[in-house]
Amino acid sequence: MVVAKRKKEVLLEQKTSPAAAKPSGTFVKKFDAAWLRQMLQGKMDYEIRVWRSLSVRFTRAVMHKATGGGLWLKLVYWLEER
Predict the structure, then answer these.
(1) Cα dihedral 4/6/7/13 (nearest 10)
(2) CB under 8 Å to 40, separation ≥6 — which residues?
(3) 42 with 32: CB under 8 angstroms?
(4) Residue 43 and residue 23: Cα distance in Å, rounded?
(5) How far apart are the first and last CA of the chain?
(6) Which region, left, alpha or beta, applies to residue 42 given φ > 0 means left and ψ of -120 to 50 means alpha?
(7) CA–CA separation, 75 vs 77, rounded Å?
(8) 27: Cβ–Cβ under 8 A, 6 or more apart, which residues?
(9) CA–CA distances in Å: residue 30 to residues 1, 22, 34, 44
(10) Cα–Cα dist 13/50, whole Å
């Protein structure tokens, strides 16, 4: 009983304390291509390109010399740059 009351008291104190109202962690605001187009419309020329279409994990697991990995990577690069 005493432990349960203490937990409730701690929770109530956390809710009412001013420190609990402050946000914690970092602030991140993510934007997408539509937002970029809207912001840059008419201000400058731009081109949105692919940075990476294959994950590192996939590349390490599948792309090996024995399976022609170098050729596959060249093909993927060529497709990305078209």
Answers:
(1) 150
(2) 46
(3) no
(4) 35
(5) 69
(6) left
(7) 5
(8) none
(9) 46, 21, 12, 22
(10) 50
Q: How would residue 34 be classed by pLDDT, with cut points 50, 70 and 90?
A: very high
User: Could you tell me the pLDDT band of residue 39, with boundaries at 50, 70 and 90?
Assistant: very high
Residue 20: predicted pLDDT? 52
CA–CA distance, 12 with 59 (Å, rounded to integer): 50
Contacts of 81 by beta carbon, 8 Å cutoff, 6+ apart: none
Are the C-beta atoms of 54 and 76 separated by less than 8 Å? yes
- Residues with Cβ within 8 Å of residue 47, at least 6 apart in sequence: none
Q: If you average pLDDT over residues 41-58, what whole number do you get?
A: 86
The burial class, CB within 10 Å (0-12 / 13-18 / 19+), for 54 is: middle
pLDDT at position 27, please? 82
